[in-house]
Each structure stands twice: as structure tokens, then as C-alpha cells.
Amino acid sequence: MCLTRKTASPVAKKALAAPDMTMIDETLDDLGWTAFFKAQVTDEELQHSHPVRVMAVHRGKIAVTGAGVQHSISPHIPGALPSDDHPTVGDWLMVDNMTLQPTRVLQRMNLFKRRAPGDPRKDQMIAANVDTLFIVASCNQDFSSARLERYLVLAREVGVTPVVVLTKTDLTDTPQQFAAAARAIEPGLRVETINGRDPASAVGLAVYCGKGKTVALLGSSGVGKSTLVNTLRGSDSIATQAIRASDDTGRHTTTVREMHRLDQGGWLLDTPGMRELQLSDAGSGIAEVFDDFIQVAQECRFSNCAHHSEPGCAVQAAIAAGTLTPDRLDRWHQLAAADVVAPVYRRRRR
User: Are residues 34 and 141 in the same domain?
Assistant: First the structure.
């Protein structure tokens, strides 16, 4: 299915009566419409509604784009329960042709979420239907292997390919040391080192941003996500702020989750910086990131080994031999204490 401006005539007619609607040349294929989403929509449903993608989430409104048209609509879906999923950036919705009211959220390929800040009982949706995740960190004292590890767990949990993008290489004489620290987290991890302000330095990232592909950016405030988006778009339309010189941390510049079009045909999904990333239901993602520890833990003498000072602990033996590191074990223990590693932390009984 590839609706063009011509085939989206019910929407175009409605646009004449809706001043907040804009006619554009995008097709569904341009927006990332694939067979996965097409299979969820029947010809009968297309008689009275049309698919749109959520481009940005604002308070009380969401910006959506469909075949040949973009506009702002209410995120409220009639009949939806408070426990139902609500639209988030990257989602595909079906929207009524006449009322422009969303009728349902299409099944997602994937969904990034975290525990809501201030209320661990709730989840906060971050982004949906992502092809690649850029985990953005900077080559300065704000660099944190532990934080990168948590973002990797998030990516592995939802099945999205992660790429660590290390920015601000122009501010250090040893960017390769930061890259080595990132690669040490997980064998085979893709790591790109760039100067986010230099288009020539960032050109290698274009391979991930082909037509209809969605690349999400996650990282702390001040690591250069907005600067990178501006560089890849060839624009300075997104505001940026300087980091604090005392600790190399930054302020929140991006305040909404929003998708930006690239000349290559792809989409960059920018998100507000997150100083805290509390994981939610991430057992399988942790199992992938800490696979080396889990494999060794199978050889511990006791099935309930906590990998501290128990006799016959294979993990402690591997640390003594230098094949595993105590720093990563500490981070594994921290995730266990947060009650998100319980299914994979201890050896299964044979």
C-alpha cells in the first residue's frame, strides 16, 4: 500500500475545512509504512479512515503525518481504557476521515519505555517502531559505561540494533580510549566516534538513515543529540545549549519527542535527555548484555550463588583470572538490587 496525495482524497477534502492541516508530498512509504503495518488494515477500514504516523507528542495534542497531509489531532481514542496504550512518537494510527479522531493504535514493531520518573509503578513510553537506536554519549567526564549499559539493555529488550555514537571528539586528545571503553561493554558492539558539529565527521551515520528508516537518539542531557540532529539535517533549527564546565553535564534542550526528516529519506527521532534510566521488564535484554556473566554463572557450585564470596563461585574465579571485570559485576548486582534481573541473575537448577 502506498497512498499518494491523489488516493488520499478524503483527507485532502477535509483539509479544506481544517486550518491546521498542511498538504505535503510524503507517501506512506516515505514515512516508514511496511508490510507489517499494511497487514493490520482492511480495505473496509480504509473506506472511512486513513493511516498516519505520530511525528511529535505535545501536551494535549499530537502532530501526525499521513499520505499527502500533516496536522495536529487529539491523542484521545474514544472507548480506550486508562490502562490502554496511548499514542507515542513513531506510532502508526488509524484516523477517521471526517472527524480526524484517532480510532486505534496499530500494533507496534517495538516500543521503548522506562519506569516513570517519580512513580515506579507506571511506565513512560519513549518511542515506537524504531529501526536503529543511536545511544549518544560524549567524550568527556560525563561518559559512563554503566549508563551506556542500561541503554544497551533497553535496546536488546525490544530487539532494536544499537549503535553507540560518541560525540565531542574535538574536545579530547584520546577519543579512542572512550571508544575502547564502550566496546568493552559488549563484544561486537558498533561504536562511532564523531564531532557532532562537523558534517564530514558524521557522514558515516547516514548508512543507518535510509528511506523510510527511523533512527532514535537516546542519551543524557548535554551529550549533543540536538547538535547531531542539526548536523545530519543540514540545519540549525533545533536549539542547543552549552554544558556546564564544572562537570560536563548539560541542561535539557529538547523538551518533546519529535521526528525529523533527513535528506536521505530517513527519520531521526529526538528525545529529551535522561539522567536517570530505570528499566522496566528488561530481563531478556539484561541476559543479552550480561551474557558472558550468565554463561560463567552456570558453573557455580551452588544454584543460589550470589557471586560474592561463596565457595565454588565461577564468576569470582573468572574475575580473579581476568576474564571478567569486577566493575561489570557491581553493575550486574545493582540491576539485581533494582529487581529487574531476578529471572536471569542466578544459575538455573539442573
Answer: no
- DSSP code of residue 39: T
| Residue 5 confidence (pLDDT) | 37
What pLDDT does residue 119 have?
A: 64
Residue 288 has pLDDT above 70, yes or no: no
How far apart CA 314 and CA 307 sit, in angstroms, is: 8
> Average of pLDDT values for 157-161?
90
The 3-state DSSP class for residue 216 equals strand
Residues 265 and 300 in one domain: no
- In this model, does residue 6 exceed pLDDT 50? no
Which of 204, 239, 270 delimits the end of a domain? 270
**Residue 112 has which C-alpha cell?**
521503548
Asked if 100 and 126 sit in the same domain, the reply is no
Whether 123 and 249 share a structural domain: yes
Q: What is the Cα–Cα distance from 298 to 60, expressed in whole angstroms?
A: 50
- Among residues 127, 102, 103, 98, the alpha carbon closest in space to that of 32 is found at 127
Q: What is the pTM of this model?
A: 0.73
Q: Determine the structural domain holding residue 296 and report its residue range.
A: 290-345
User: Which 3 state secondary structure label does DSSP give 71?
Assistant: strand
